[in-house]
Amino acid sequence: MTTYGYARCSTNENKQDINRQKRELKALGCVDEKNIYWEYESGTKVDRVELNKLLDKVKAGDTIVTTEVSRITRSTKQLCEIIEKVKEKQLKLVIGGFVVDCSKGELDAMTDGMLKMMGVFAEMERNMISERVKSGMANAVAKGKVIGRPITTIENLPSSFIKHYPKYRSKEINKSELARICSISRQTVHKYVKVYESAEEK
């Protein structure tokens, strides 16, 4: 029986430090860092690479720990799907101090209800944040400010990508490995590679 941890932040390492979650996961029982799966992805994204790897890896009797329900997902629908997976695989799910024991393949009605309520609040919080962001953007536009992501250039590529790109270029690692090391998607790696190669050609 093994304890695994899952940590997630929405933006990249330059804006959010995921190490705090890792420390908290160790305090919750996932003492071996190699068993901590982590990524920088939106909590509403369904197909998350590291979460899927973790759910495929765990076996009956294993435990998954996370700091709060919003780290796993901000979608009530996806949370229900994860709960079913936990029951199917007979796992324990620890969310902060809340223990969901499905090691016998079952979940009592009270725990099930509380867990789903936590999911509803996580989704509601996300929607409220989204509404505030949209309101702020509309206000900024009304004041004549330019809204949108800055153009990606070699000057603003993440330091982790710049550091590990030479390994990809020398074929020591492939795009998937580079994406994992940098905690970004393969699509983002492809975009960054094009930016880097275009800069080199100039």
TrEMBL record:
<dbReference type="Pfam" id="PF00239">
    <property type="entry name" value="Resolvase"/>
</dbReference>
<dbReference type="GO" id="GO:0000150">
    <property type="term" value="F:DNA strand exchange activity"/>
</dbReference>
<protein>
    <submittedName>
        <fullName>Resolvase domain</fullName>
    </submittedName>
</protein>
<feature type="domain" description="Resolvase/invertase-type recombinase catalytic">
    <location>
        <begin position="2"/>
        <end position="144"/>
    </location>
</feature>
<dbReference type="InterPro" id="IPR036162">
    <property type="entry name" value="Resolvase-like_N_sf"/>
</dbReference>
<dbReference type="InterPro" id="IPR050639">
    <property type="entry name" value="SSR_resolvase"/>
</dbReference>
<dbReference type="InterPro" id="IPR006119">
    <property type="entry name" value="Resolv_N"/>
</dbReference>
<dbReference type="GO" id="GO:0003677">
    <property type="term" value="F:DNA binding"/>
</dbReference>
<comment type="similarity">
    <text>Belongs to the site-specific recombinase resolvase family.</text>
</comment>
